[in-house]
Amino acid sequence: MKHYAKYKLLIIDEIGYLPIDGEDAKLFFQVIDLRYEQKSTILTTNASFKTWGEIFQDPKIANAILDRILHHATVVNIIGDS
User: Are 69 and 31 in contact (CB under 8 A)?
Assistant: First the structure.
């Protein structure tokens, strides 16, 4: 956790490309929570926020992650060919 918490900017690419099991979802939440309101994080995904409960296999954890991510976020929606 300390490794990912120390960077001023953390870029996490392709959230939702593969499903995330329960233990990994908890670890991901902890990383986001450690960085929340202290460090910058960029996430990329092709999944809508509505599907994050399925990706993380737990709607409660997905909502907690999204609460922290979206609180001070700028969301850039890109529509078009990849």
Answer: no
